[in-house]
Amino acid sequence: MAKAPVKKNSSAIKRTKQSATRHARNASILSSLKTQEKKVMKALEAESTELKELFRNFVSMLDKAVKKSVVPKNRAARKKSVLNKRVAGGKSAVPKPAAKKSKSAKK
Protein backbone atom coordinates (compact mmCIF):
# COMPACT_ATOMS: atom_id res chain seq x y z
CA MET A 1 0.00 0.00 0.00
CA ALA A 2 1.37 3.42 -0.98
CA LYS A 3 2.19 5.72 1.88
CA ALA A 4 0.01 8.82 2.09
CA PRO A 5 1.72 12.21 1.98
CA VAL A 6 2.44 13.77 5.37
CA LYS A 7 -0.45 15.89 6.59
CA LYS A 8 0.21 19.32 8.06
CA ASN A 9 -3.21 20.09 9.47
CA SER A 10 -3.61 18.84 13.05
CA SER A 11 -7.16 17.54 12.43
CA ALA A 12 -5.94 15.68 9.33
CA ILE A 13 -3.18 14.08 11.39
CA LYS A 14 -5.71 13.01 14.03
CA ARG A 15 -8.07 11.57 11.41
CA THR A 16 -5.19 9.61 9.87
CA LYS A 17 -4.34 8.10 13.26
CA GLN A 18 -8.00 7.28 13.92
CA SER A 19 -8.34 5.68 10.52
CA ALA A 20 -5.28 3.48 11.08
CA THR A 21 -6.57 2.40 14.51
CA ARG A 22 -10.01 1.54 13.14
CA HIS A 23 -8.51 -0.31 10.20
CA ALA A 24 -6.43 -2.49 12.53
CA ARG A 25 -9.44 -3.19 14.77
CA ASN A 26 -11.71 -4.00 11.83
CA ALA A 27 -9.13 -6.31 10.25
CA SER A 28 -8.74 -8.18 13.53
CA ILE A 29 -12.49 -8.60 14.00
CA LEU A 30 -13.02 -9.76 10.41
CA SER A 31 -10.17 -12.24 10.69
CA SER A 32 -11.56 -13.80 13.86
CA LEU A 33 -15.03 -13.93 12.29
CA LYS A 34 -13.69 -15.83 9.29
CA THR A 35 -11.82 -18.22 11.57
CA GLN A 36 -14.92 -18.87 13.65
CA GLU A 37 -17.01 -19.43 10.51
CA LYS A 38 -14.47 -21.98 9.26
CA LYS A 39 -14.64 -23.79 12.62
CA VAL A 40 -18.44 -23.98 12.34
CA MET A 41 -18.23 -25.30 8.78
CA LYS A 42 -15.64 -27.91 9.76
CA ALA A 43 -17.77 -29.01 12.73
CA LEU A 44 -20.79 -29.21 10.42
CA GLU A 45 -18.97 -31.49 8.00
CA ALA A 46 -17.69 -33.69 10.83
CA GLU A 47 -21.11 -33.64 12.55
CA SER A 48 -19.34 -32.60 15.75
CA THR A 49 -21.07 -32.56 19.13
CA GLU A 50 -19.90 -29.01 19.83
CA LEU A 51 -21.48 -27.63 16.65
CA LYS A 52 -24.28 -25.76 18.43
CA GLU A 53 -21.84 -24.09 20.83
CA LEU A 54 -19.55 -23.03 17.97
CA PHE A 55 -22.54 -21.68 16.05
CA ARG A 56 -23.74 -19.75 19.11
CA ASN A 57 -20.27 -18.20 19.51
CA PHE A 58 -20.17 -17.29 15.82
CA VAL A 59 -23.58 -15.58 16.00
CA SER A 60 -22.48 -13.66 19.09
CA MET A 61 -19.28 -12.49 17.38
CA LEU A 62 -21.25 -11.53 14.28
CA ASP A 63 -23.72 -9.46 16.30
CA LYS A 64 -20.87 -7.66 18.06
CA ALA A 65 -19.25 -6.90 14.69
CA VAL A 66 -22.55 -5.42 13.45
CA LYS A 67 -22.81 -3.34 16.62
CA LYS A 68 -19.33 -1.91 15.93
CA SER A 69 -20.24 -1.27 12.25
CA VAL A 70 -17.57 -3.67 11.00
CA VAL A 71 -20.06 -5.87 9.13
CA PRO A 72 -23.29 -4.65 7.46
CA LYS A 73 -26.38 -5.91 9.30
CA ASN A 74 -27.93 -7.50 6.20
CA ARG A 75 -24.78 -9.51 5.49
CA ALA A 76 -24.76 -10.71 9.11
CA ALA A 77 -28.44 -11.66 8.92
CA ARG A 78 -27.85 -13.59 5.69
CA LYS A 79 -24.86 -15.48 7.15
CA LYS A 80 -26.81 -16.35 10.31
CA SER A 81 -29.81 -17.51 8.31
CA VAL A 82 -27.85 -19.73 5.93
CA LEU A 83 -25.73 -21.28 8.68
CA ASN A 84 -28.72 -21.76 10.97
CA LYS A 85 -30.50 -23.75 8.25
CA ARG A 86 -27.42 -25.93 7.80
CA VAL A 87 -26.92 -26.45 11.54
CA ALA A 88 -30.59 -27.28 12.12
CA GLY A 89 -30.91 -29.55 9.08
CA GLY A 90 -27.52 -31.21 9.01
CA LYS A 91 -25.76 -31.93 5.72
CA SER A 92 -29.00 -32.18 3.76
CA ALA A 93 -29.55 -28.45 4.17
CA VAL A 94 -26.54 -27.51 2.06
CA PRO A 95 -27.60 -24.57 -0.12
CA LYS A 96 -27.93 -25.46 -3.78
CA PRO A 97 -27.14 -23.00 -6.55
CA ALA A 98 -30.18 -21.50 -8.21
CA ALA A 99 -31.12 -23.12 -11.50
CA LYS A 100 -30.72 -20.82 -14.47
CA LYS A 101 -33.69 -20.27 -16.70
CA SER A 102 -33.11 -21.60 -20.16
CA LYS A 103 -33.75 -19.16 -22.94
CA SER A 104 -35.69 -20.56 -25.83
CA ALA A 105 -34.46 -19.74 -29.30
CA LYS A 106 -36.25 -16.81 -30.86
CA LYS A 107 -37.49 -17.28 -34.40
Helical residues, percent: 55-70%
- Provide the structure class: mainly alpha
> Which class of the domain at 21-90 in CATH terms?
Mainly Alpha
Mean pLDDT: 84
Shape label: flat
Number of strands: 0
Strand content: under 5%
Main sheet summary: none
List the uncertain runs: none
CATH superfamily of the domain at 21-90: Ribosomal protein S20
What is the count of DSSP helices, taking H or I runs of 4+ residues? 3
Q: What is the helix/strand order?
A: HHH
Distance between the termini: 54 Å
**CATH A-level architecture of the domain at 21-90:** Up-down Bundle
**Integer-rounded radius of gyration:** 21 Å
CATH fold-level topology of the domain at 21-90: Methane Monooxygenase Hydroxylase, Chain G, domain 1
Characterise this structure.
66% of the residues lie in helices and 0% in strands. The protein is mostly helical and 107 residues long. It has a domain of 70 residues: Methane Monooxygenase Hydroxylase, Chain G, domain 1. Helix 1 runs antiparallel to helix 2. The longest helix has 37 residues. The N and C termini lie far apart (54 Å).
